[in-house]
Amino acid sequence: MFKFILNTIPRPLLIKASYWVRPFVALYLKGSKYTDPIDGRSFRKFLPYGYQSQRKNALSPSTFSLERHRLLWLYLKNKTSFFSAKLKVLHIAPEQCFLKIFKKQKNLDYITADLYSPIADVKADICNLPFANNSFDVVFCNHVLEHIEDDKKAMSELYRVLKPGGMGIFQVPQDLNREKTYEDFTITDSKERAKHFGQYDHVRVYGRDYFNKLRVAGFTVKEVDYTQIIDKSLLEKFCLSEGEILPVCTK
């Protein structure tokens, strides 16, 4: 019965489900084949997830992290001082799989912001952030810019509030087979946006030129394919997307 109920819940709704759902899902899928590196728990399978099409083993049953979250976590843990250095951090549209963990980090002065999210500390428009210049050592803004029509303004704001020498990571849905970003603001119908851009509330699909857009905003950008460094067996165990690029930006 539980399996039937689980399989009938739309996956995009699962990620927004109340916290009480997670223990039951995690218990049902408990195993050893796959591991969520964020909390170290293992499962016989992860949940499928996707809007247009379902990706197998994408959504962790315990943290509800997706591939991009687990990749970012591993990069921060293994390649940065994020969990040890004294840092002032701005997190735009904070992901629930990170929120409690980052808030508990004693080394972090951690501030979250979003225009609509009820879990954010500060209500803020990414195109007009209410923070002084050079305020933050680290800025996260992941899977947000594809929702923003004036993404140039948003990028300039992210650059403005980042301290010189600071680090920003700004993940987006990206088609690396596409040279140039595709956008068309005359497309406003949710079904048409899903058809053209992959999701009902997206306004573009970023291509390989995304990194240069960040450079134009002022950032120095490293296109980090951290999946090439991780052992192949761990790519499968952690359910990562091979070839996903982390845009690691500095000012």
Short description:
This protein has 251 residues and is an alpha/beta fold. The chain has nine helices and 13 strands. 31% of the residues are buried.
What does this structure look like?
The chain has 251 residues and is α/β, with parallel strands linked by helices. It has two domains: 2-65, no CATH class; 68-250, Vaccinia Virus protein VP39 (Rossmann fold, 3-Layer(aba) Sandwich). The protein is built from nine helices and 13 strands. The protein has helices at residues 2-8, 11-14, 21-28, 67-79, 96-104, 151-161, 190-197, 210-216, 232-237; strands at residues 30-35, 42-43, 47-49, 55-59, 87-92, 108-114, 122-123, 136-141, 162-169, 182-183, 204-205, 220-224, 246-250. The strands form four sheets. A seven-stranded mixed β-sheet has the order 7-6-5-8-9-13-12, sandwiched between helices. It has a two-stranded antiparallel ribbon with strand order 1-2. The longest helix is centred in the first third of the chain and has 13 residues, at 67-79. It is globular and about 45 Å long. Residues 1-12 have low confidence and may be disordered.
